[in-house]
Design goal:
Length: about 300
């Protein structure tokens, strides 16, 4: 009998195009992936992949197995979510995926409060750039900021939350120095992948044409605190930081709306229902902060 775990590894290589990508997505090492693929090939008596300089390509036999493997995966996920839907205990694993800024700068105290209220629930917070996939059961709940509801998958159940706005910020000390006539150039501080948003303007402060680039939000925030220049931030970060101030003459911009997303039968489990109800109430209370209605430290 074919081991379902071997099929999982096969699908990961087929989708990722390489053993390295598969190992990363599954959270295992390179050798484990190779061993699992070799085990599957031995049981089926055929090679699944052709190794090329650019990665792994499915053989004809592998293409045939791929369609059946997808069906096996769909059946497995359906069975798992149905069983989970009947699980009404307030214990077990709860995986929540959300963007790092939301986790670090807004809801971590609330996540901690929920964990204290329910000590038998094992919390796993998946806070990284790429949000986990609910359809593949990588997470139970996703908290996402979405500009257009139509971009969300139709098979997910969504609970709408508050709107999120952002603005243009700079160091409070740097603004004071600029007003005093300091000659130091003021730069745009940007995350490399994003650049300067179309909606952002310099307002009353003029910048040099040479930007300062970072690869992540935490470095971006650290750079603007150092007085290098202007940057765009969600209001829930910029407005509560005593070192930062909104740049005079700039406007707020709507990033999107918070959505709490769950999948199929999983959303019926008691721990998922308790969490979504709890965190949606907490975020609703943050609506003025999220929309930029609080006072910036000017």
């Amino acid at each position: 009998m074919i081991d379902w775990d071997d099929i999982r590894y096969f699908l990961a290589v087929a989708r990722g195009g390489s053993v390295r990508a598969a190992a990363k997505s599954l959270g295992v090492n390179h050798a484990t992936v190779l061993r699992r693929i070799a085990q599957l090939e031995e049981r089926l008596g055929a090679l699944m992949f052709e190794k090329l300089p650019a990665g792994y390509r499915l053989t004809d036999a592998g293409e045939e197995v791929l369609e059946l493997a997808k069906q096996m995966e769909a059946s497995s996920l359906k069975l798992e979510t149905r069983v989970l839907g009947r699980d009404q205990s307030v214990r077990g694993l709860l995986r929540v995926t959300l963007a790092p800024p939301l986790s670090t700068h807004l809801v971590m105290p609330d996540l901690a409060d929920f964990a204290r209220l329910h000590p038998d629930i094992e919390m796993e917070i998946l806070s990284f750039g790429e949000l986990a996939n609910l359809t593949n059961r990588e997470a139970d709940v996703a908290i996402r900021v979405v500009y257009d509801r139509k971009t969300l998958p139709l098979n997910l159940h969504g609970l709408k939350g508050p709107e999120v706005f952002g603005g243009v910020y700079m160091s409070r000390d740097r603004l004071a120095a600029w007003r005093a006539g300091a000659p130091d150039p003021i730069r745009w501080i940007v995350i490399s992948l994003h650049g300067i948003p179309d909606w952002a303007s310099e307002g009353e402060v003029r910048t040099t044409g040479v930007p300062f680039r970072t690869t992540d939000a935490e470095s971006q925030i650290a750079a603007v605190r150092q007085g290098l220049g202007l940057t765009t931030l969600p209001c829930f970060i910029g407005d509560v930081d005593p070192l930062l101030v909104r740049v005079p003459g700039t406007d707020l911009h709507m990033y999107g709306t918070v959505w709490f997303l769950t999948k199929g039968e999983t959303r019926k489990t008691k721990r998922v229902r308790l969490f979504t109800e709890f965190i949606s109430r907490r975020l609703a209370a943050y609506a003025p902060l999220l929309s930029g209605q609080t006072t910036s430290h000017d």
